Fold:
Amino acid sequence: MSDHATNAATETFVAHRNLLFTVAYEMLGSAADAEDVLQETWLRWVKVDLEQVRDQRAYLVRITTRQALNRLRTMSRRKETYIGPWLPEPLITAPDAAENVELAESMSMAMMLLLETLSPTERAVFVLREVFDLDYDEIAAAVDKSPVAVRQIAHRARRHINARRPRSVVSATETRAALESFQRALETRDLQGLLDVLAPEVVVVSDGGGIKQAALRPITGAEKVVRFLAGGLSKTDATITLGPTVVNGNPGFVFRLDGEIDGVLAARVEDARITGLYYVRNPQKLTRIDSETPLTLR
Structure:
């Protein structure tokens, strides 16, 4: 490839890099694996004759989707031996990510866990159609299916997700208010305050990956969750601080003990109360938290 062609390929790839990363991440739930997919996409992209490509953005998405599908099938085998609940690798995203309500919802921890219940192909089709609004012909080319088959897969995946997703979309302001109440209660070790901000059916999912201590199963119910949190609080005399941030496009916290990162906390809020808490402690999923600037999506 000539220098001119290489430069053109590089410019196009860089222009769409955030989009490609977001596609890969939404399919995989792992920033590290998404970065590997982008590297594989680049290696294939530089070999393409750009003069033969009608829509370069669609072509790049196609390569990324195929590489992500290959990796997703490999990851499913890794997850079978994972110790305790598996949560997506948290992303600290730019504050304006929350302004794109559809994208923020699709990247939330709760939705990412829902996507885990789809087959690899269903997940790819759902993400490309519902999140990125690709047409069925483009998706068909990316997943090696006919447009008719893709329509059927999209309908099936949409019905599956809609049956399990929250009934209404909560504003970032409402979520932030609930989390501020949670923060005050946790930092002051106010157990009644915690109970007041948690919904009766609240669920806590914690991911230590077998490296850090975490509950091996989800904990359900406000009183059980408060007892679980109280037990954790009683085991440390460290100063607890929750640094507000944007996690996966939604309000969340970086949780620190005496200034050292202990984990990243994301939440689901409905009717002004917390219905889901997702706490990532696995240090292998926290390597990007302090080392990189917040990610700008798309």
